[in-house]
């Protein structure tokens, strides 16, 4: 994906994350307020029942009162602790699910004096107090309630998980669609000979042609047999059944797409031509050509960037490779071919490679530079890799000439 799409996806992801966090916080606060109002209503009802039960003499020590309070406590799942106390009589009654809610251990006893202090987690538990009766003999009823527990948080966390899973699924589908569309870019240079070869025109807007070195050289790419054989119907497929490599006629379109992608993300792009150093009869050529194609597919992980370029040549696109990285990689290929048995013996190739190097140029320029480099490698005896290193002065001169 281009930087623009990546930034857009990052912004959408951040916005979605903030939305989920805000929604979760809103739901928790709303539920906490609802539960707090509910337990206050329950405290009012509990106070009325305790006031009625405590009116009898020695009510707090009677088995009936304790039995009724235990039944009331068990019927209130949010009630964690209930205590009755007064300054004169001490702690009269205490029932709790966990004594850890008390700041200091206490038992119902006239000797205990003071006001109980409770350990609660703010926002999750709530301590309420109410008065039983009137006058100087009034007693205090304390209740500690849970207002936000696991049973409250579970549905919220579950819904958040569903939202994240749905977002990941939709994002994955959109990424697949964008990736598929970006790879299916129409050719930027529909005219011209197939296979990527070109001849500079004499129009005033074209840069001056480069000097072509003399000596033996591989056949120009414009002379390569590209695309499916004439006996096959049009639209037969992207790759050749003989080698598994992409037909040469698709090179221009893919190179233009990779150049656009490299320019948009400020990355480099290497382009290489590979030519067999030996001449073979047709029977042996098919075997050798196919075996070298197999090795190319093993060494380079992008099969749609490896192309047939004729009966004795190949072309490779090397995304995110500068000239030095590309030369190193292609030299490893040359060494492997010179040691591996291919149709009975090791084989040698001449390789020419160039790279975008931050320059403003099109695919035809890179293919011509790669052709010049492979011609030099072949002229110097073969079995070598030659990198085309652009002359900045000549490049600026050609660029300024095209603008005049």
SSE map:
Layout: H1 3-53, H2 63-74, E1 79-86, E2 90-96, E3 125-132, E4 139-146, H3 150-183, H4 251-264, E5 269-276, H5 282-299, E6 306-308, E7 313-319, H6 323-339, E8 349-355, H7 363-379, E9 384-387, H8 392-403
Parallel strand pairs: 8-9
Antiparallel strand pairs: 1-2, 1-4, 3-4, 5-7, 5-8, 6-7
Helix pairs in contact: 1-3
Q: Would you mind describing this structure in some detail?
A:
By secondary structure, this protein is an alpha+beta fold. It has 8 helices and 9 strands. Helix 1 (3-53) runs antiparallel to helix 3 (150-183). The two termini are 36 Å apart. The chain folds into 2 domains: 3-80 and 121-151, no CATH class; 191-403, Alpha-Beta Plaits, CATH 3.30.70. Strands 6-7-5-8-9 form a 5-stranded mixed sheet. Strands 2-1-4-3 form a 4-stranded antiparallel sheet, covered by helices on one side. Helix content is 43%, strand content 15%. Mean pLDDT is 80; it is low at 186-234.
Would you list the SSEs in sequence order as H and E?
A: HHEEEEHHEHEEHEHEH
Number of domains: 2
Proportion of beta-strand residues: 5-15%
- Total number of strands: 9
For the biggest sheet, the summary is: 5 strands, mixed
Measured distance between first and last alpha carbons: 36 Å
The overall pLDDT average reads 80
Which bin fits the share of residues in helices?
40-55%
The CATH class of the largest domain turns out to be Alpha Beta
Structural class: alpha+beta
How is the CATH topology of the largest domain named?
Alpha-Beta Plaits
């Amino acid at each position: 994906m281009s930087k623009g799409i990546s930034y857009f996806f990052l912004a959408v992801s951040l916005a979605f994350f903030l939305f989920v966090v805000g929604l979760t916080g809103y739901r928790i606060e709303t539920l906490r307020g609802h539960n707090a109002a509910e337990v206050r209503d329950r405290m009012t009802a509990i106070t009325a029942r305790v006031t009625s039960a405590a009116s009898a003499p020695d009510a707090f020590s009677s088995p009936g009162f304790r039995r009724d309070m235990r039944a009331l406590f068990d019927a209130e799942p949010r009630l964690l602790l209930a205590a009755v106390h007064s300054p004169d009589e001490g702690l009269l009654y205490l029932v709790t699910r966990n004594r850890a809610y008390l700041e200091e251990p206490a038992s119902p006893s006239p000797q205990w004096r003071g006001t109980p202090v409770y350990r609660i987690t703010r926002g999750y538990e709530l301590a309420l107090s109410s008065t039983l009766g009137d006058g100087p003999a009034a007693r205090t009823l304390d209740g500690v309630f849970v207002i936000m527990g696991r049973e409250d948080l579970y549905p919220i966390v579950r819904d958040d998980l569903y939202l994240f899973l749905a977002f990941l699924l939709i994002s994955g589908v959109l990424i697949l669609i964008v990736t598929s569309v970006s790879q299916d870019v129409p050719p930027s240079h529909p005219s011209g000979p197939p296979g990527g070869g070109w001849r500079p025109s004499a129009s005033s807007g074209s840069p001056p042609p480069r000097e072509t070195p003399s000596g033996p050289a591989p056949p120009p790419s414009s002379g390569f047999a590209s695309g499916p054989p004439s006996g096959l119907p049009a639209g037969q497929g992207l790759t050749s059944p003989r080698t598994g490599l992409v037909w040469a006629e698709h090179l221009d379109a893919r190179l233009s797409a990779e150049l656009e992608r490299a320019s948009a993300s400020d990355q480099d792009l290497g382009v290489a031509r590979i030519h067999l150093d030996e001449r073979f009869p047709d029977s042996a050529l098919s075997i050798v050509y196919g075996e070298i194609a197999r090795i190319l597919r093993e060494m380079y992980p992008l099969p749609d960037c490896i192309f047939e370029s004729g009966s004795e040549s190949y072309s490779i696109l090397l995304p995110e490779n500068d000239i030095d990285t590309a030369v190193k990689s292609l030299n490893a290929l040359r060494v492997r071919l010179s040691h591996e048995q291919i149709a009975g013996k090791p084989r040698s190739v001449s390789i020419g490679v160039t790279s975008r190097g931050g320059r403003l140029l099109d695919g035809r320029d890179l293919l011509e530079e790669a052709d010049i480099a492979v011609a030099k490698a072949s002229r110097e005896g073969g079995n070598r890799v030659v990198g085309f290193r652009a002359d900045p002065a000549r490049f600026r001169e050609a660029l300024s000439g095209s603008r005049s």
